[in-house]
Amino acid sequence: MFIIRWLLGRIILFFDFIFTPRGPKRAAAEQQEINQRIANMSLYQLPACPFCVKVRRAMKRNGLPVELRNINRNEDYKQELIAEGGKRTVPCLRIVNKDDSVDWLYESKEIVTYLEKIAS
């Protein structure tokens, strides 16, 4: 099972690399404003997870450089996701609000919809 999952993961990463979308061309001031809006966000993810790939592609397509946190490479990220978010499910978008409360979005479709609202 491990070999099959590893192989499928590599295939997903290969096609993601080949068909990576282009980001939008924006004026520097407009991009800076968007960067400020997403400065309080981070995406907990795994590189070969198909749902994580979906979210990363949406981020790229919309020009949103959200911080990526690979939970397999950093044990602290994994523990933070479990302790604060409540479960070890990826993708998960962590949003720190202006009042310092934290929201956790777990569904890739909801994350993409949220990010597209920010980009527009």
* Form type: flat
Assign a percent range to the helix content: 40-55%
Q: So what's the oligomer here?
A: single chain
Strand content: 15-25%
Helix and strand composition category:
alpha+beta
For the report, how would you describe the main beta sheet?
4 strands, mixed
**Cα distance, first to last residue?**
42 Å
Strands across the major sheet, in which order?
A: 2-1-3-4
Strand tally: 4
Instruction: State Rg.
Output: 15 Å
How are helices and strands ordered from N to C? Answer: HHEHEHEEH
Instruction: Figure out the total of helices.
Output: 5
3D architecture notes:
The chain is of the alpha+beta class and 120 residues long. It is 52% helix and 15% strand. It is built from 5 helices and 4 strands, in the order ααβαβαββα. It has helices spanning 2-18, 28-38, 50-61, 75-85, 108-119, and strands at 41-45, 67-70, 92-96, 102-105. Strands 2-1-3-4 form a 4-stranded mixed sheet. β3 and β4 (102-105) form a beta hairpin. The termini are far apart.
Layout of secondary structure:
Layout lengths: L1 H17 L9 H11 L2 E5 L4 H12 L5 E4 L4 H11 L6 E5 L5 E4 L2 H12 L1
Q: What is this structure, in a nutshell?
A:
By secondary structure, the protein is of the alpha+beta class. It has helices at residues 2-18, 28-38, 50-61, 75-85, 108-119; strands spanning 41-45, 67-70, 92-96, 102-105. The relative contact order is 0.16.
Features:
120 residues; four-stranded mixed sheet; alpha+beta
